[in-house]
Amino acid sequence: MLSSNAFVDPGKMKDYHYTGPVEHRFSPYSFNGGTVLAVAGEDFAIVASDTRLSEGYSIHSRDSPKCYKLTDTTVIGCSGFHGDCLTLTKIIDARLKMYKHSNNKTMTSGAIAAMLSTILYGRRFFPYYVYNIIGGLDEHGKGAVYSFDPVGSYQRDTYKAGGSASAMLQPLLDNQIGFKNMEGVQHVPLTQDKAVQLVKDVFISAAERDVYTGDALRVCIITKEGISEQTVPLRKD
Amino acid sequence: VLIRPASSQESVLQPPCGPAGLPPAASQTVPLPFPMSHGTTTLAFLFQGGVLAAADTRSSCSGLVACPASQKIRPIHSHLVGTTSGTSADCALWKRILSRELRLYQLRHGRRLSTSGAGGGASADLGGTSGGLQKASPSSSGPGLWYVCSDGTRLRGSLFSVGSGSPYAYSILDQGVRWGLTVEEATSVAREAVYRAAHRDAWSGNCVDVYHVTSKGWTRRKREDLKEEYYREKGRQGR
């Protein structure tokens, strides 16, 4: 269902009153909501996303996770416009296969991040409306998180939240994982169990305050043993 | 280093045309539903000890701080440093292209391309993107500083500041920068300029990076959090 209003600010419905003649213009973009989060630890990485797919005031699906497995050591979380998320992940999968066939090895997380940056920039003048976060293990087995903007600017982080509730989650992560904005606090390294618990708590908070986040949480934990997934229910309202 | 004049800050959702309102080469027919990250304070100047470049580290996206620890000064090679401002994706990618072209030149011709040549190459490539570049390096003819803009402007000078915080930085630089500065004095002026700009400009802040380029190459000062500086100053004033 595509709203016929001009999409100056998708995700916000206009008021129901007559403002005079309005030019209706087709917008190729739509906003489907969703939040993704990634945390890098010493020898693990976590990529989590909610599973709600919405548009305007409607929910299309309660079971549409936004984490996509790329390799045995890398998971990508994509939120924003679902059409572009699907196409982008298909393109990344194809490029991964091409790399594997030409170079006889799997792409590393850093290489995938650099490649994604060029893929996104290739559409600089008609961007993919996708907020990407890649989580995985680097060549040394340490956790790595790479966060992107829609046109391909990226950098490596320790933790990052993206999507509709990112502005609410990022300060919380800064405080709990980065120990920022506090004085006289002991910096304790993050264990895997504590990180998973923190991610769950953080999403429960996001579901309370952001209408586009909710239904369920899918957590992917990447370690050298492989990728394990957990699903946690969230508010459905 | 791409620098975007303060006047185009409002055009967040408009096509990324050149700052002087020139018709863009590849115009955007689709209005973007999201803002790009930009907003910054960067500066560079020449002095007897080489070239000094400094920048803040805040990357903002409309009202949100997308990244409080971004790198706005990126080395292009051992003797050339570029500062970035404007859309970060544009800056990052053009910097990569520039590094590649300079490296190829070096391999083909056996010597490094001068800063003015690098500037020429960059301005020919830019077009349609938004931002400005400052390139600082010492070459065989001495240190060089070039300001390159996405509309193709290429200016040589001895002092530039680019970004939304540049007016504040200029006020410190104009009174403090002289040819005869020592390295410590120059670093202190550059730091102070970024600090004042970060304090007054909403889109600049967090930390400051300082790079010093000489004929031996570039050195980087440890990234410094400006919050500490602010509290030190408050303590000194006894307020």
Automatic annotation (TrEMBL), chain A:
> What does UniProt give as GO cellular component?
cytoplasm; nucleus; proteasome core complex
Any Gene Ontology biological process: proteolysis involved in protein catabolic process
Where is it located?
Cytoplasm; Nucleus
Q: Which UniProt keywords apply?
A: Cytoplasm, Nucleus, Proteasome
One Pfam assignment? Proteasome
Which InterPro entries does this one have? Ntn_hydrolases_N (IPR029055), Proteasome_bsu_CS (IPR016050), Proteasome_sua/b (IPR001353), Proteasome_suB-type (IPR023333)
Is the keyword ATP-binding assigned to this protein? no
State the superkingdom. Eukaryota
Subunit composition? Component of the proteasome complex.
**What's this protein's family per the entry?**
Belongs to the peptidase T1B family.
Role noted for this protein: Component of the proteasome, a multicatalytic proteinase complex which is characterized by its ability to cleave peptides with Arg, Phe, Tyr, Leu, and Glu adjacent to the leaving group at neutral or slightly basic pH. The proteasome has an ATP-dependent proteolytic activity.
State the protein's name: Proteasome subunit beta
User: From which source organism is this entry?
Assistant: Gasterosteus aculeatus aculeatus
From TrEMBL, chain B:
Q: Does the keyword Protease apply?
A: yes
Under the heading SUPFAM superfamilies, the entry gives: N-terminal nucleophile aminohydrolases (Ntn hydrolases)
Task: Provide the protein's localization.
Answer: Cytoplasm; Nucleus
Q: Where is this region: Disordered?
A: 1-20, 113-143
Q: What is its main location?
A: cytoplasm
Which top-rank group of organisms is this from?
Answer: Eukaryota
Q: Which InterPro entries match?
A: Ntn_hydrolases_N (IPR029055), Pept_T1A_subB (IPR000243), Proteasome_bsu_CS (IPR016050), Proteasome_sua/b (IPR001353), Proteasome_suB-type (IPR023333)
Cellular component (GO) terms are: cytoplasm; nucleus; proteasome core complex
> Known catalysed reaction(s)?
Cleavage of peptide bonds with very broad specificity
Q: Which residues form the active site?
A: 40 (nucleophile)
Q: Which GO terms describe its biological process?
A: proteolysis involved in protein catabolic process
Keywords, in A-Z order: Cytoplasm, Hydrolase, Nucleus, Protease, Proteasome, Threonine protease
GO molecular function term, any single one = threonine-type endopeptidase activity
Chain intervals with Polar residues compositional bias: 1-12
Pfam families named in the record: Proteasome
Assembly and oligomerization: Component of the proteasome complex.
Q: Report the function annotation for this chain.
A: The proteasome is a multicatalytic proteinase complex which is characterized by its ability to cleave peptides with Arg, Phe, Tyr, Leu, and Glu adjacent to the leaving group at neutral or slightly basic pH. The proteasome has an ATP-dependent proteolytic activity. This subunit is involved in antigen processing to generate class I binding peptides. Component of the proteasome, a multicatalytic proteinase complex which is characterized by its ability to cleave peptides with Arg, Phe, Tyr, Leu, and Glu adjacent to the leaving group at neutral or slightly basic pH. The proteasome has an ATP-dependent proteolytic activity.
Family per similarity comment: Belongs to the peptidase T1B family.
**What's the protein here called?**
Proteasome subunit beta
